[in-house]
Predict the structure.
Amino acid sequence: MATEHPDNVQETGQETDEEYVEIDGTRRRKAFVDRFPDVAKPIRVLYGIAFAAFGIGALFGLVQALHRTGVLRVFSSADYYTILTGHGVLLALVFTTFLITANFHWANTRSLGVKPISQRLTWSWVIVMTLGVVLAGATIFAGLFPEIPASADVLFTFYAPLEAHPLFYVGAALLIVGSWIAGADWFLQFREWRQDNPDERIPLQSFMVLTTMLMWYLSTLGVAIEVVVFLIPWSLGLISQVDPLLTRTLFWYFGHPVVYFWLLPGYLVWYTLLPKLSGGRLLSDPLARVVFILFLLLSTPVGFHHQYTDPGIAAGYKFISMTNTMFLLLPSFLTLFTVVASMEHGARQRGGKGYFGWLKALPWHKPEFSGVALAGIMFAAGGFSGMINAGMNINYLIHNTLWVPGHFHLTVGTAFALTMMAISYWLYPQLSGKKLQLRNVAALQPFVWFIGMVLMSNAMHRGGLAGIPRRTAEPQYQQFSYDAVVGGVTEMRIQIAIGGTLLFLSAVMFLAVMLATWLMSPRTSKLRVNGEIPEPLSTAEDAPLVLDNLKLWFALAVVLVALAYGLPLYDMVADGIFAPGSGTFPV
Amino acid sequence: MHVHRFEKIWFGVSLLLIVGFIATIVYGAAGPGVAMVGDDGGTIDASAVADGNFEQTDNFREPGIYEEDDGIHVYIVARQFLFNPGTSQPIDVPAGETITFHVTAADVTHGFNLAGTNVNTMVIPGQVAKFEVTFDETGEYGIVCHEYCGSGHHTMAGKLNVVSQSNFEIQPDGDAEQAGDN
């Protein structure tokens, strides 16, 4: 089925024999799997779990889109929330974390050029994370079967005092702990490299992995305390009540940086791979480092912008968080510049001309490029609605309306998800030694996702402006109807149903390509891709040394978090850490 | 470190935009007076709310509508899956007057939103959300619980009517009839 495209492996004729591998008579350039077979294997396992979660989560998304809009109702409206919990957890926590750790494992190893220090260590975090997913997933699914005395219909934010089965919280904790061990794996690998390369700059991809993980350690502390200190003992009956405001504050301490934990692996692709896929080189290595440091510093002291409408938090604290959030736009603005400029540079290398004419010279027929580029375009729209969210007073118009999922389906649902799908087309062949199958399906898939998301997301945003709430099985009420600001409510409903269906179709196309590649192709085939990444135009040598001082930046990040969270958290615990409390409400 | 001239310009424009965003928000607060929900509603014992023992609290009353020296006060309790008042009987408030809402939860976290407006707050057990609203014109608004609160969440809604000052009257005993079904 796959047609033969010209090989895009650009060989210069200067390669040495060591760069080639011969398997069963076919000679090809060495892929990642040939250099690091022990590293590639756990990555493939992580991919498998991530894609399985993606398939189920996407199916749940389809069920919701059709249920909410009244097109087709497979489950009761009470069970809708079980499906919604599954959708959020499987996509926003499982699909993301497994793909991120997989790609970081690849990126750290590729850029450092040395193996992780211990195979056993690597497998330990893969197993811990998987165990967490099995526990949390099983308790969620149990909610669909009334005969099983366990459920976790608490959505992916699990606000107390809605209570889930203890195993749900244990599973969530294991997922986080597993990701911590993964980070340790990469820091140890870096330390090993550093001993042999005392004066080298940290390779860019490794720098991105390490700064992202520092941000992750700092931010997951909040949710870890919430789950381990409060929710697990409470769900086991060891403590009778928890403070709903304190626990949700700890959640949001983690809940905003987690979006950068999703986004930064996408940025890693945009900075280090998109320029190459466009046919050019990254403009500036030093500015990429600056951007990641800004994210390390500013990702965490902003969580209150998810709590603008919360009582019990002084408006002044919200204001501080709002200004931090606005400055967090800066690294994304800088990224926008680099992404567009790198693509233009690539296009001009390929013969592109004119102010906008160069866009035509880009390789839109290659899904690894088109997916990443379309994800970037959509992120610009998502960034715009994100600015509205961040605007402290205008936020009151859209808080907890359909606008919000409309926003994050552009960011985590496209900027992250579509980038990861696209780069899987490029990376999986190098991790498996197998040529990508169903390439025509793959070439179409990013466009189907894009169109589906345009339909669904624009309607969700407008629905939110009309006041239609998120997180509900039936957004229609007897007491009143909505006044749409732009368009009509029925038209929005149709767009959401069609958009959701197209997104599911696109997910199926992606999974079909991955499955066909996994099952069918022999390892001997010639890959169409190579893992070489060209030097940036401005290299790391131009970057001030202080940028690589990770201890300094981490210490500054801790200080900023202490400033933003010290007083508010003190206010909340001053009246007792379990008060003002509320008992348990199983659902 | 070499930074391209275009990128320097872009950097400057980005910073300007960010400062501009912050300025609009400051203006929104200082000019039109858009206020945040803050911590001035105080904390409350959620079990007292659940049991209807409002006399044990110093910052909440029997749910209902009250006229005080400083204007109209509306006390609302949210619980699975209704607003009291609001769901079984609409809340009537006068136009053109400052209404102070006090909203709290008896069980789990809920939301309170007048659909399509910026009257929007989380309703968290243990906390009282206090905010002021002035309705310039008469009209009808749907009240939506916008935070998932359990399997019947989608049934949790209510209604608020803004009536003219001349049509507005408060039931004696601060809407005792509504308070009864709490």
